[in-house]
Amino acid sequence: MDRIGYAVFTDKSIWLLGKNQYTSNVESGSTRTEIKHWVELFFGVRVIAMNSHRLRGKARRMGRIMGQTMHYSRMIITLQPGYSIPPLRKKRT
Hints:
Layout: E1 4-7, H1 11-17, E2 21-26, H2 32-43, E3 47-55, E4 59-62, E5 65-68, E6 72-79
Antiparallel strand pairs: 1-2, 2-6, 3-6, 4-5
């Protein structure tokens, strides 16, 4: 489960929730079959399709040296009708 980063909440990803599609960032080296296996095992859902695209890291300056953040991939996971992933909520104290 280490390769799945976190859920992404943008305008497009919120719109896709209505189509039973969930968006999350994953590590660049992970494969679709790995991600599909972990999502089905961890959340107990059935995945019917997965779309992915690679996002470049952003340029960052540290003093005189120009650096770059890590590249990562974003997966859009489509679930079978009737399945859903529960929202992650912070525990209130």
